[in-house]
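Q: I'm building a small set of examples for a reading group on sequence design. Run inverse folding on the following structure and report the sequence directly after it, with nothing in between.
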């Protein structure tokens, strides 16, 4: 078996990285939190935490209860997922590579000494200090660029342009409570149409579509949301329904840079 690669996080960008590494024949273990909040759930292996398994573009990820199930899951050609937000298993496993793909915009505990090669995606890390390399995640000319020193571009809080639309396409919770979906990912929605409701002691509050388009992402039904949390993403390109269920161009670009570093290290 090839040396183990450990990826922290199983959201949509992380899944692009995991899929690329898995397709290249590298064994990958994913570490997740007990209650992931992925928006693009159809292309996030973190859904296996809730469902037991999650399949994205032919790759199946499986939640394992402990490390005793690691080898058999890898031998079955699947990607094991372990709930371990602190990375407690890392000293025991001694992975060849650790990739921080949490995308928290800050370092939640990844250190350069965790593995011979450490890589982080996006802001919150300094290449050459926290980790060996940082991959730029900001859309634009430098997307996917490998940084050998210094940080990625700081988070602007403004989503990248999709179909000519930026901030308007992303919806944040205006209330704290339990979210219940009224639409599903892939549905065509009209501006102002309720796509979900948030329930709390004060009542039910509808979540209207911010623009018309395809519901590209929606946090899972029954999730406890807090005010300000990102809960949905609408794509104005109504002819792009298939894209709701496939890995994005951004994720593939970032994944290519990670694979380059892993191959370089292996060689």
């Amino acid at each position: 078996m090839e040396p183990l690669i450990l990826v922290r996080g199983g959201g949509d960008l992380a899944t692009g990285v995991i899929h690329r590494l898995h397709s290249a024949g590298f064994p990958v273990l994913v570490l997740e939190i007990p209650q992931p909040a992925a928006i693009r759930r159809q292309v996030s292996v973190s859904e296996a935490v809730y469902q037991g398994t999650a399949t994205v573009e032919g790759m199946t990820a499986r939640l394992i209860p402990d490390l005793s199930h690691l080898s058999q899951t890898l031998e079955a050609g699947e990607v094991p997922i372990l709930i371990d937000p602190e990375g407690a298993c890392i000293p025991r496993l001694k992975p060849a590579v650790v990739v921080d793909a949490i995308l928290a915009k800050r370092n939640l505990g990844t250190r350069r000494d965790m593995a011979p090669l450490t890589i982080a995606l996006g802001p919150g890390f300094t290449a050459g200090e926290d980790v060996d390399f940082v991959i730029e995640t900001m859309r634009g000319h430098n997307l996917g660029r490998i940084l050998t020193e210094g940080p990625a571009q700081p988070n602007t809080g403004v989503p990248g342009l999709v179909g000519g639309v930026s901030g308007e396409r992303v919806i944040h919770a205006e209330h704290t409570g339990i979210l219940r979906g009224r639409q599903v990912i892939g549905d065509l929605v009209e501006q102002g149409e309720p796509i979900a409701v948030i329930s709390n002691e004060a009542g039910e509050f509808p979540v209207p579509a911010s623009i018309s388009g395809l519901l590209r992402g929606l946090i899972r039904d029954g999730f406890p949301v807090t005010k300000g949390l990102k809960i949905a993403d609408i794509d104005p390109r109504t002819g792009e329904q298939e894209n709701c269920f496939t890995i994005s161009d951004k994720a593939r670009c970032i994944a290519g840079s990670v694979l380059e570093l892993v191959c370089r290290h292996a060689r």
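The longest helix spans residues 249-266.
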